[in-house]
Amino acid sequence: MQSYLNANxxxxxxxxIDQTCEVLVEVHSVEELITVYQSEEWKHLPKLILGKGSxxxxxxxxxxxxxxxxxxxxxxxxxxxxFKLHISGGEDxxxxxxxxxxxxxxxxxxxxxxxxxxxxxxxxxIGAYGVEFKDVCEYVDILCLDTFKVKRLSRNDCLFxxxxxxxxxxxxxxxVVIAIGLFLEKPWKACNHYGxxxxxxxxxLSSQSIFNEVCKIRTxxxxxxxxxxxxxxxxxxxxxxxxxxxxxxxxxxxxxxxxCGETVKVAAGWLIDQCGYKGLREGGAQIHAKQALVIINADxxxxxxxIILAKRVRxxxxxxFEIDLEHEVRFIGNKCETNLAEIVDNQ
Length: 347
Ligand code: FAD
Ligand code: EPU
Prior knowledge:
Blueprint: E1 3-8, E2 20-27, H1 30-38, E3 47-50, E4 56-58, E5 62-69, E6 74-79, E7 82-88, H2 93-102, E8 127-128, E9 131-132, E10 137-144, E11 150-154, E12 175-185, H3 207-221, E13 229-233, E14 239-241, H4 242-251, E15 257-260, E16 263-266, H5 268-274, E17 281-282, E18 285-287, E19 294-297, H6 303-321, E20 330-332, E21 337-338, H7 340-345
The structure holds flavin-adenine dinucleotide and uridine-diphosphate-2(N-acetylglucosaminyl) butyric acid (EPU).
Uridine-diphosphate-2(N-acetylglucosaminyl) butyric acid is lined by residues 128-129, 195, 221, 232-233, 236-237, 256, 267, 269-270, 273, 278, 291-293, 328.
């Protein structure tokens, strides 16, 4: 197991911003993961588990150990009522989706091209085009960091919600996801109710055709991190009360919102777009010209450029719509996770 001191994190996160960490180590097995957490040398250093770094903003040098999860392995069991997949946490999620579609194991196609590791998928319950991770999840295997024992959580145990799970709350920093169990039901049922997928004719519906369409839409709309650094949607779509939604809608009849129970989920991209912020630049950071919810590293952006731009967006949306945006991207500070409000308060 190789470790690197004062390592540059730029190749390890999709924003591609220059930032360093005290120690960087790549783990290939659960045993190596345990060794890192139990190491005498690194005992007093904070630790951060990283997949592909596609939901991360390193705001400063991280004075701790960044652990890159590369625990690999896939097992499939073909059962009468569905495929059961046991996938190690370090497997690449988009490769997994492409592979499953190619092998005629339908069910993951709507979640194509979401960068990241399989083990990161449960953390924010990844979702796109009408499907969330929770819809295909059977279990999540975790390494408990107090006992160093492996425990299996059922889908219900994970308390999945929109961009949320138990891993952001009760199990925060208490466990590492080492594997996931997926169940892809037979017979396959297409999920094509989301926006542009509706236009796919029923005769053309297959796991492969949905996969192709999702890839096409994503390629058109979202910037490729290999070309322009980014971390996908920078903010979550805010979930607001029906009362507030009705008040905002009275002033802005075109507002895009999706009812969820007593609340309404509002399209944050629309809100930012309405502020006229598409293409807005701050140093090397820029609001993407095709998708206002994405901040890109347009030209050697620093983390401060991104922070200043995110602050401007949040203030503009609040001033115009009385709606608070919460960032989806995880902000990592010098010793632990931080957030935009905390950084702004300390300035
Ligand atoms: P990282 O960014 O490395 O980590 C994210 C968080 O999870 C960190 O807090 C990290 O500490 C923690 N973590 C990572 N691995 C583990 C583990 N094994 N155990 C415990 N904690 C862990 N997201 C969507 O939901 N839908 C989308 O459509 C979508 N589109 C995107 C498009 C682009 C172009 C990009 C760049 C991002 C997009 N995202 C999307 C966000 C991102 O792909 C997901 O959040 C993804 O799951 C992150 O995986 P990762 O391996 O890169 O995680
Ligand atoms: N919109 C605008 N202007 C913009 C962007 C969007 O008006 O600049 C409008 C669109 O016209 C549409 C609505 O906002 O009416 C929603 O846009 P879109 O379908 O592009 O989806 P989104 O809400 O912006 C969410 C997820 C994405 C996911 C897509 C597809 C969040 C925060 N984002 O984006 O996930 O891929 O839906 O399901 O929930 C991510 O989390 O990183 C991510 C990319």
